[in-house]
Amino acid sequence: MGLLVEGKWQNTWYDTATTGGKFERKASSFRNWVTKDGSAGSSGVGGFKAEADRYHLYVSLACPWAHRTIIYRKLKGLDKLITMSVVNAFMGDEGWTFEPGEGVIPDPIHGAQFAHQIYTKADSHYTGRVTVPILWDKKTNTIVSNESAEIIRMFNSAFDDVGATSVNFLPERLHREIDQMNDYIYPTINNGVYRAGFATTQAAYDVAVEEVFTALDKLEALLAKRRYLMGSQITEADWRLFTTLVRFDAVYVGHFKCNKKRIVDYTNLWGYLRDLYQQPGISDTVDIPYIKAHYYGSHESINPTRIIPKGPLLDFTTAPQRY
Ligand SMILES: N[C@@H](CCC(=O)N[C@@H](CS)C(=O)NCC(=O)O)C(=O)O
């Protein structure tokens, strides 16, 4: 694990020394938008028109942020329009790699060995972390975006005139409410589990873990009244929550010490998780052995033996009993 400084790879773990043991996630750096007509989006520059076979997505099957983009690619029928590569589950001294292994799909564009080479292809002086997902433009040879929250919004609508499925996970009438829900779930749950797991002081961990479970308790109550977060329709907020919930019992309970409860202990959240998992196409996007191999195998400071636990035995395929 490391980062690029002026285009050169440096091997360092997250710096929590300057933040009192707290893990702070840095903002993404490539923030352009693919749009229907190529005009600029709400950040970055224009020139990225939605076209078939122009864009390539780099993901890890372990990463909850990348998983959002894999789900959207699948549900929006973009697998016909946007090609995809998958990095190796193990993230070591060179960061994400394309070393042959379970689930790996090599890089057909650059034949890259390491994901950091994709960043330096886009910007030879890039400074920052090398994260997935990465949306690459084959036409102008650069990174469009490495921010999953924005990539899924592009995928939701930009390709609708060039063959995407018309399903809409961000209906205008719910836009504000979805933003508010995301703003609540991101720090407390999506990133909350990382804040607990990567904390290097008891105090930082204590705060983070309490926030995770306060938020889960709150959503458990909400889901007693609603099938999905916004009501009867699946929206963006659900897919963003899903990618954390589906990893929770297998990884975050043990590896990140979020162990006050498991998702299976929450009646509504557990049913809701299975309901989403059983939506057509979704199970294909979830690879629990790869996910476990990544977290337990890569985070040496948390799990120095790199031993991958056998359990838990999870079955996402039983009837959700939600409706
Ligand atoms: N804000 C980014 C975060 C992506 C992210 O942090 N990805 C992690 C994997 S889960 C990563 O690639 N980390 C490598 C690193 O930080 O060096 C997004 O949502 O797209």
Topology order in helix (H) and strand (E) letters: EEEHEHEEEHHHHHHH
List each distinct ligand once.
glutathione
Q: Number of helical segments? A: 9
User: Class of the largest domain in CATH?
Assistant: Alpha Beta
What kind of sheet is the major sheet? Answer: 4 strands, mixed
Describe, in plain words, how this protein is organized in 3D.
With 323 residues, the chain is of the alpha+beta class. It has two domains: 3-162, Glutaredoxin, CATH 3.40.30.10; 172-282, Glutathione S-transferase Yfyf (Class Pi), Chain A, domain 2 (Up-down Bundle). Helix content is 35%, strand content 8%. It has nine helices and seven strands, in the order βββαβαβββααααααα. The strands form two sheets. Strands 4-3-6-7 form a four-stranded mixed β-sheet, sandwiched between helices. A three-stranded antiparallel β-sheet has the order 2-1-5, with no helix packed on it. Helix 1 crosses helix 7 (236-252), helix 4 runs parallel beside helix 7 and helix 7 (236-252) crosses helix 8. The chain is globular and about 50 Å long. 41% of the residues are buried. The model has no long low-confidence stretch (mean pLDDT 96). Glutathione is lined by residues 1, 28, 63, 65, 95, 129-133, 146-149. Glutathione binds next to helix 3.
Topology (elements, then pairings):
Blueprint: E1 3-5, E2 8-10, E3 55-59, H1 64-75, E4 83-86, H2 115-122, E5 128-129, E6 134-137, E7 142-145, H3 148-157, H4 175-190, H5 192-197, H6 202-222, H7 236-252, H8 267-277, H9 288-298
Bound molecules: glutathione (GSH).
Glutathione (GSH) binds at residues 1, 28, 63, 65, 95, 129-133, 146-149.
